Amino acid sequence: MDVEEQIEHVVIWEDCVNVGIEIVGYETEANWLLGCLANRICRLDFHDPNLTSQTATLKAFAGEIKQHYETVKDAYRVVSRIDRPLRDEYPMLSYGHWREITRRGKAKDKKALRAWAIRSTDHGWSVSQLREQLRGNRNVKSADPVKLMRKVVGVVGDLAVLDMEACWKNEADEINDVLLALEAAVDRIDTTRRKMMDG
User: Fold this and answer.
1) Pair 124, 94: CB distance under 8 Å
2) CA distance 28 to 34
3) What residues does each domain of the chain span?
4) What is the rounded distance in angstroms from the CA atom of residue 198 to the CA atom of residue 192?
5) Most confident of the ranges 18-32, 127-141, 172-186
């Protein structure tokens, strides 16, 4: 029985939910398969003068299959960076999670990809929560020590005002990232001060 026939036969809530999960699974699997095919296409030589670059090839392919170029490009990027063993290691992460993780930068650093997968899994983040964490983390890492100190002072001030337990649950990772970066900055300052005193 195909899915449309299943839909016509559902009469209880649980069956509706099960068919819904199956349908959503098709879309997720379709994104992975689209990425696999896009990767394969980019590795082939079609001897076509119009397909001289990866971008041109993906755009032509997207047009032929009536998909947005961005959809095909995203699928290509995700599959090229997330191999099947890594994906299978975190089955609770959706294609959307991996799409956000791979948007984080151009580096193909498996350790960074794995670190975000672990954090997202451990915290049970939705795709939008992960996106916010990725944005916040990028800002913290690019900040200089003075900005980090200002951020720590602001966060500590907020902690004093807000309910400690609720605040800690929501901002623990951000606080931890700031404190780690601040600790590294203090270490650099100490090293520089020691060099100045010795030299």
Assistant:
1) no
2) 10
3) 143-199
4) 10
5) 18-32
Q: SS3 string of 80-149?
A: HHCCHHHHHHCCCCCHHHHHHHHHCCCCCCHHHHHHHHHHHHHHCCCHHHHHHHHHHHHHHHHCCHHHHH
Q: Taking the model in full, what pTM does it have?
A: 0.58
Reported as a single tens digit per residue, the pLDDT across 95-125 is: 999 999 998 765 567 888 888 899 999 988 8
Q: Is residue 38 within 8 Å of 72, Cβ to Cβ? A: yes
Yes or no: say if 58 and 76 are a contact pair by the CB < 8 Å rule.
Answer: yes
